[in-house]
Amino acid sequence: MEFKLLCAALLGLSLLTSPKHGFQQCLPEDTKLTDVVSASMVKPGAKSKNINVEQTLIAIKAQCKKGKLVDASGKEIRFYRLTGCWGNPPADYQEILARQAEEIEKLKKQYTVIEMTCNPDAAQVY
């Protein structure tokens, strides 16, 4: 009887610690389920409200199929880390942002693009 209880407890523990959705095996090497996709400041001085990769993938009903992340319609998902959180922007910042927008639009023609914030703390950038 004790053995059965121990096995049940271990099974329950492994279910709690293993990824529920299986996303991890399909993520790019430089991306974790806990990485921040978007952050917003609820009140000045308060802790930011973050949305992470796992929450985003669940929201878009993503699945890991044949080693690739796909959305609910089967379109492959790509992550794009945004630039542009400069305290003092470089002289060519407009060109950098324009290039970034072009790259994202091009990717969106073929993939579902998850744009990841460059400001995961929602800090005020001046």
Compute the average pLDDT.
Answer: 83
Class by SSE composition: alpha+beta
Oligomeric assembly: single chain
Q: How many beta strands in the DSSP annotation?
A: 6
Distance between the termini: 64 Å
- The helix/strand series, from N terminus to C terminus, equals HEEHEEEHE
Proportion of residues in helical segments: 25-40%
The structural domain count equals: 1
Hey, roughly how much beta strand do the residues contain? 15-25%
Search tags:
126 residues, globular, two-stranded antiparallel sheet, alpha+beta, two-stranded antiparallel ribbon
Question: Please, could you describe this protein's structure?
Answer:
By secondary structure, the protein is an alpha+beta fold. It has one domain. The chain is 31% helix and 21% strand. It has helices spanning 2-17, 53-59, 93-108, and strands at residues 36-41, 48-52, 63-65, 68-70, 77-81, 112-116. The strands form three sheets. It has a two-stranded antiparallel ribbon. A two-stranded antiparallel ribbon has the order 3-4. Strand 1 and strand 2 (48-52) form a beta hairpin. It is globular, with a radius of gyration of 19 Å. The chain starts with a helix and ends in a 10-residue tail after the last strand.
Give the secondary structure arrangement, pairings included:
Blueprint: H1 2-17, E1 36-41, E2 48-52, H2 53-59, E3 63-65, E4 68-70, E5 77-81, H3 93-108, E6 112-116
Parallel strand pairs: 5-6
Antiparallel strand pairs: 1-2, 3-4
At a glance:
The protein has 126 residues and is an alpha+beta fold. 31% of the residues lie in helices and 21% in strands. Strand 5, helix 3 and strand 6 (112-116) form a beta-alpha-beta unit.
